[in-house]
Every structure is written in C-alpha cells, then in structure tokens.
Automatic annotation (TrEMBL):
The family this protein is said to belong to: Belongs to the binding-protein-dependent transport system permease family. FecCD subfamily.
Membrane protein topology class: Multi-pass membrane protein
Record carries keyword NADP: no
UniProt name for this protein: Iron ABC transporter permease
Biological source species: Rhizobium terricola
Lineage start: Bacteria, Pseudomonadati, Pseudomonadota, Alphaproteobacteria, Hyphomicrobiales
Cited PANTHER family: FE(3+) DICITRATE TRANSPORT SYSTEM PERMEASE PROTEIN FECC-RELATED, FERRIC ENTEROBACTIN TRANSPORT SYSTEM PERMEASE PROTEIN
Length: 347
C-alpha cells in the first residue's frame, strides 16, 4: 500500500513539474513574440528613430519615417497571423495523417490553392478579395483530398511515405501547371511570380480584415480538434473504442487546416516549411498532447515568421528578401534532418 502511495505521489509530482515546465516555455514564447513584434515594427530597410516609431504607433504620420513605420504595422500583424495559421495547419496535418513530414507545402495543399487562384485570375477574371480567398480554400481542399486519395491507394493505405511522395509529386505537377497558365498571360506574369514566392510585404489592414473571419474560423475549429487528435494518436481502433467518430474527427481537423492554408495562401502566397518545422520544435518543448501542442505551434509559428521577415529585411539591405525565401533556407535542411531521424515513421 505504501509503495502504491509512493508511486502515486511520484506520478503527481512528475505531472506538476511537466505543467510548470510547459508554463515556463509558454511565458518564454510569449516574451519572444513580443520582442519579435517590436523588432518587426522598428527594424527595416530604412532606419527610423524611436520618437518616430512611438509617434507612428500613436497614429501620427507626419514624416516619411513615420509613414514607413505605419506601413510596417499591418505587415507585422499579417506575419503574426500567417505564421500562426501555417504552423497550426502543419500540426493538424501531422496529427490527422500521423505523418511526421506533413506540411501544407509538402502535401501540395499550398500549391493547390496557388493553382486555383492563378486559374481563377486567368480564366474567370476574379478580382475581389473574397473571391481570392474562397478560390484558394477550394483549391486547398481539392489538393488535400487528391493527395490523400492517391496516398491511400495500394497495400497499407495512407502511409507517411506514400503521402509524402504523393504530396511532393502533386506539388511539382501543380507548380508546372501554374507556370503553363501564366506563360500565356504576360499581363499578370510579373505579379503572379512575385506572389508565388510568398511574402507579407505590402500588407494593409483592409486585406487583413477580409481574411480575418476565415482565419478566426480556422483557429477555432483547429483548437477544438485537440482532444480528437489525441484520440487519433492512439490508433483508429483505439479511438473508435473510446467513442470517437474517427472519420468526423479527421474531417473536422482537416477542415480547420484547409481554412488556415487557403486563407493564408490567398493573401501571402505559398509560404513553405513553417508548418513542418514548428510542430516538431514544439513537441520537444511541450510533448505530444495536442491541447498544448496546437496553441504552442500557433505562437511559435508567429515568432518564426516575424523573425524570418525581419531577417529578410536585414540581409539584403537596401532591398529585402521575401519571407518565403528565408523560411525555405531554414526549412530545407530541417526537412532532410527529419527524414534521416524519423525514417518516415508514423507519429
């Protein structure tokens, strides 16, 4: 009886220490987010003094320096929202597919949204923000369904390796189709190529307002899927035995990821690797419990994209690198490391 009591006490102590460590990491990530947010507003291709920064934050735009700060504020907000959305979508996709390589870019979802937008511009002459967003979400959904269907064919069903291969092939094919469509339209080629790199430059609060309802819906659906994803991590049979409707759990979590990917791609272009890097980092910090992993991924993804945007402004002064290029430099080596370390096992 005493031994059992000691084990119970040790278990409670371990849980308390784990919770304390998670809260400590949470505080650290929030502080880092605040620091990167300040840097995103203060640092850029044009050096601006703190008096002008404070004046612009207070709504005064009476000089070129203050106008530069006023332009950085919506850019900072967009980077924060987009980073959170992409990282959260990556964590959801990895949970739904139990694939450590799942990512909106690797599974072809971002490129599906891109192809849909390019086709919409070229053939259907879409122009409004709402049309862009709905078109991107539809393209993301079709791409996700297509990749999952292809990856499910044959023996063994949708294994991580088959999904990664199907997604990579689909992404390459969709990218080629985008080029083929754009080649015949010189009037839109420059804008589309620039948008395809992925970036948060030129952000305005008007554009953010249009996409915000879709992001809020995606965030809500995603965070409500945490308990379902914990059940799915035990295996389909175990999840069903615990009373979980497996198909519904997967569909609802996938819907959240598609909304986040589609809306973000519509406004920023296809930004890769954020959804791959961040969830793996967050698992090292807070473990595999999706009730912690999902919000941590969102906060850490916002930090990553803000820092990548700041870095892109600094390394190429007086010009700047789009954030999609910076995340690719970070994400590509990380992708190789995951493949070597995980050997494409299931989560």
């Amino acid at each position: 009886m005493t031994a059992a009591g000691d084990m119970l006490a040790e278990g409670k102590s371990f849980v308390q220490k784990t919770q304390q460590l998670r809260l400590l990491w949470l505080a650290g990530v929030v502080v880092a987010l605040a620091v990167f947010g300040v840097l995103s507003v203060a640092v850029g291709t044009r050096a601006v003094g703190w008096p002008d920064i404070v004046a612009a934050l207070g709504g005064r735009v009476e000089s070129i320096d203050q106008a530069a700060i006023a332009a950085r504020i919506p850019r900072t907000v967009l980077a924060l929202l987009s980073g959170a959305a992409l990282a959260l979508a990556g964590a959801l996709m990895q949970g739904v597919t139990r694939n450590p390589l799942a990512d909106p870019g690797i599974l072809g979802v971002n490129m599906g949204a891109s192809l849909a937008i390019v086709v919409g511009i070229t053939w259907f002459h879409i122009a409004s923000a709402q049309a862009f967003i709905w078109t991107a979400i539809l393209g993301a959904a079709v791409a996700a369904l297509f990749v999952y269907t292809i990856g499910s064919l044959g023996r063994g069903g949708a294994t991580p390796l088959k999904l990664a291969l199907a997604g990579t092939a689909t992404s390459i094919a969709f990218s080629s189709l985008v080029i083929a469509v754009v080649l015949s339209r010189n009037d839109i080629a420059g804008g589309v190529r620039s948008w395809q790199i992925g970036g948060v430059g030129g952000a305005t609060f008007d554009r953010i307002v249009h996409v915000l309802p879709f992001l809020v819906a995606g965030f809500a659906i995603s965070l409500l899927s945490a308990r379902k994803l914990n059940s799915l991590a035990l295996g389909d049979e175990m999840a069903a035995g615990l009373g979980e409707r497996v198909a519904w759990a997967r569909a609802s979590a996938a819907l959240g990821a598609i909304l986040l990917c589609g809306a973000t791609t519509a406004i920023c272009g296809p930004i890769g690797f954020v959804g791959l890097v961040v969830p793996h980092l967050c698992r090292l910090l807070v473990g595999v419990d999706h009730r912690w992993l999902l919000p941590f991924s969102a906060l850490t993804g916002a930090c990553l994209l803000l820092s990548a945007d700041v870095l892109g402004r600094l390394v190429a002064r007086p010009s700047e690198l789009d954030v999609g290029i910076v995340t690719a430099f970070v994400g590509a080596p990380f992708f190789i490391w995951i493949v070597r370390r995980q050997q494409v096992r299931e989560l």
